[in-house]
Amino acid sequence: MTVPAIRVRAVTKQYGTLNALGGVDLEVGQGEFFGLLGPNGAGKTTLISALAGLVRPDGGSLEIMGHDVVGDYRNARRNLGVVPQELVFDPFFSVRELLRIQSGYFGIRGNDDWIDEILASLDLTHKAGANMRSLSGGMKRRVLVAQALVHRPPVIVLDEPTAGVDVELRQGLWQFVRKLNQAGHTIVLTTHYLEEAESLCGRIAMLKAGRVVALDTTDNLLRRFATHSLRVSVDRVDTAAALGGRAAEDGWVEFAFDGYADVEGLLARLRESGAGLREIQLGAPDLERVFVEVMHRA
Ligand SMILES: Nc1ncnc2c1ncn2[C@@H]1O[C@H](COP(=O)(O)OP(=O)(O)OP(=O)(O)O)[C@@H](O)[C@H]1O
């Protein structure tokens, strides 16, 4: 049996009286593209820091490719590449120097062929000799990704890698991360862009206040929690809302239902009610709705 890429068991972490992690259990299989979602302060970064050995959990255990992050730190760390949220660099090194130093941390010498390959994939070749301080924010973020990859880790964790990054770079980054995943790397991603998570992640865990409140395949989450929606613009909002809708802004009323088959009946009742139908919009279930629903129920 293959070991999971990541195994998190009953992990707790307190800061004073605050439960940053209140007993988290998770398993991510090798080769998965896994999403870790949750509102600000849910504990995502704390969990990632614990995986990277930067935060010591109060209880429970974490393993990377079967290596305990406390008891077998070196091997656990060797198997993990983390792209952190914060852009922190020594401004005096060039991009290549930085990547060589990072390779050195893992005891790797003569890593330039691989470094060249990473730089090319991230469209950074022309910046290899540039000082970190001369790079734009988006380029620095790409260097963070490169830094996480110098030791060819099988498991890669990206903590909001696209925050504050322009659309073009975001798409480029995702293309690259997808390629890594297709090449067999396990990817764990946190992001507040739910559309991105929906299109990239096969499975998703949602965290709220240090607890896993949903954990399933993206498809199942969409099926289980999300409803389709019908938005209608009407002359008489109250009349329409009385049929089970929710009044929204500017004369729009929203209805939630399980499948498109229900739309016809609803439209017929709206017409009969004399609400004065002006315009309709249909919405398919999306992860954003699921997220709002899960957070609301939890
Ligand atoms: N070093 C620390 N000292 C005290 N409290 C902390 C520390 N680090 C995190 N916390 C608290 O722990 C909770 C979880 O924070 P964490 O950064 O893990 O959340 P997050 O899900 O990553 O949020 P975001 O989406 O904003 O990045 C928050 O309430 C935060 O204020």
Automatic annotation (TrEMBL):
Q: What is the lineage of its organism?
A: Bacteria, Pseudomonadati, Pseudomonadota, Betaproteobacteria, Rhodocyclales
From which domain of life does this come? Bacteria
Q: Record the organism.
A: Thauera linaloolentis (strain DSM 12138 / JCM 21573 / CCUG 41526 / CIP 105981 / IAM 15112 / NBRC 102519 / 47Lol)
Ranges for domain ABC transporter:
6-234
InterPro entries registered for this protein in UniProt: AAA+_ATPase, ABC_transporter-like_ATP-bd, ABC_transporter-like_CS, ABC_transporter_ATP-binding, P-loop_NTPase
Q: What is this protein called?
A: ABC transporter
| GO MF terms held by the record | ATP binding; ATP hydrolysis activity
Which Gene3D superfamilies does this entry report, sorted A to Z?
Answer: P-loop containing nucleotide triphosphate hydrolases (3.40.50.300)
The record's annotation in CDD domains points to:
ABC_DR_subfamily_A (cd03230)
The record's listing under SMART domains reads: AAA (SM00382)
Sorted UniProt keywords: ATP-binding, Cell membrane, Membrane, Nucleotide-binding, Transport
